[in-house]
Amino acid sequence: MSDQNNANILEVFGLTKKFGEFTAVDNISFSVEKGEIFAFLGPNGAGKSTTIKMLTTLLLPTRGTMRINGYNPVKEQDNARKSFGIVFQDPSLDDELTVYENLEFHGILYKVSKDLRRKRMEELLKLVDLWERKDHLVKTFSGGMKRRLEIARGLLHHPKIFFLDEPTIGLDPQTRNQMWSYILDLNKKEGITIFFTTHYMEEAERIAQRIAIIDHGKIIAQGTSSSLEKQTKTNSLEEAFLSLTGREIREEEATASDHMRLRKAMFGGRKR
Amino acid sequence: MQAIYILWLRQIKRYLRSRSRIVGSLGQPALFLVALGFGFGPIFQKAGGGNYIDFLSPGVIAQGILFTAIFSGIELIWDRQFGFLKETLVAPVSRFEIMIGRTLGGATISTMQGIIVLILTLLLGFRPSLIYIPLAIFIMFLTALLFTSLGTAIASMLEDFQGFQLIMNFLVMPLFFLSGSLFPLSAAPEFLKIISAADPLSYCVDGLRFALIGVSHFGIITDLGVMGILTFIILVFGAYMFSKIQI
User: Chain A residues contacting B, CB < 8 Å?
Assistant: First the structure.
């Protein structure tokens, strides 16, 4: 594996994750080139988030190897962690802190020096149109504003690769468009590799240069949007996706966080 | 060090911003002081126990610390479910530093809470000797550290708040009621003495009583020794449990 193509920022080989008897990710292999925009698609429960968790050092793989910016996320955790930025599926901001404090927290954890941190915070907050609100508490923000802040935060330490796990879920078309234009701009100007998952097929079709489709823990197709359409003899990515993964609706078991989210909604966001 | 500092600071900021939480958590100690303190006071005095408010106040301070500390440890579940924990876990910082920063933060706010309860007891007529106040604050901090670590260790094992009621009823409440906070251990029946001797909070209350009113059941050396050793063990255990979290 060691002499593999240097142009690859992400290399995954034979990656497997089992939870007891259940195989969430089943022997998948793929690679992503530097500067590429890569979409990872699949129905609910297909193994997308589990894969991202393993790549981002949150979960240990059962088997297989990974390289992120040349580092092994299992053994060279800190170097791997410095190489990526991430926007999680659920917001992961501290609601009780201000915009500025959330970024400051991130910058210190990633050991970005004070001057550099302050400079980048201003740049990034201006980029996502939150500079004027830097002293506002995050809990007063809408979903779209939180997402923009998370994007700014994920970029603060200048990652080489940016993971976005369903970044546009629950956002209106305006915010979604604006968000993608920031990200595409970054990709073009800074050459940051983008790895994202989404359920919106037209988004993947429009944005991604290459796509991998995962189902039941296995990668069942890879390529450009048009090559996937050709392969399945369909006219759109959505049809190609459905033809590859079937039309049956996937049941996903409610997780602990779903229960909690329900409770949070019931109690109006109060803690106890 | 910087990482530990910023995690500590986060806890402090959150605490100072949640005024309703600070005020809300004074309700219980106030109730104990008024209902038990003034209610039982005359009987306690008649039985030759002396001033009950003086006796009760260190116990109520310890109770305030116990509750705040366990909760701030358990708050980890909240961070875990609502994502903020992920932000810290993917950062290039060791799990150990994260745990220490959080725990020191929780211990600091619990100590602050203890000091606020102390002020409340002063308002309600508690008259401690003030020479040993530094010792009292040190004991409060040790108590806070012990129970924040315990809360963190428990929270590391739980997925959600389902087990929360269980912890309240079978851990926090017994820790408090069996600690000799409310009654003198010296006059308690033998079996209760044995149970209380196994309750870590007993040593915290006893140490506080020594520092504030000069009365002690176990002796201050025993109190500090037990608390020190136990805090160390639970801190190590909490750090271990925290390092095992997978999301």
Answer: 53, 56-60, 77-79, 81-82, 84, 86, 88, 90-94, 96-97, 101, 104-106, 108-111, 153, 256-257, 259-261, 263-264, 271-272
pLDDT, tens digit, 9 for 90 and up, residues A147-204:
999 999 999 999 999 999 998 887 888 888 888 988 998 899 889 999 999 999 999 9
Cβ contact (<8 Å) for B87 and A93?
yes
DSSP state of A134: T
What kind of architecture, by CATH, is found in domain A8-90+158-266? 3-Layer(aba) Sandwich (3.40)
CB contact under 8 Å between B247 and A264, yes or no, is no
Q: Which residues of chain A have pLDDT under 50?
A: 1-4, 267-272
B6–A104: do the CB atoms touch at under 8 Å? yes
Rounded Cα distance between A192 and A179, Å, is 15
Of A86, A97, A263, the CB nearest to B10: A97
Q: What is the pLDDT of residue A3?
A: 44
CA distance B40 to B36: 5
For chain A, the domains span: 8-90+158-266
Provide the pLDDT for residue A265.
55
Chain A neighbors of B87, CB-CB under 8 A:
88, 92-93, 106, 153
The SS3 assignment for B168 reads: helix
ipTM: 0.88
Q: Mean pLDDT, to the nearest integer, of B219-235?
A: 97
- The dihedrals phi and psi of A171, each to the nearest 5 degrees, come to -100, 150
How high is the pLDDT of residue B43? 92
Write down the pLDDT at residue A270: 41
Closest to B74 (Cα-Cα) out of B166, B137, B10, B1: B166
Of residues A81, A86, A271, nearest to B92 (C-beta): A81
Please tell me the distance from the alpha carbon of residue A78 to that of residue B106, in angstroms, as a whole number.
26
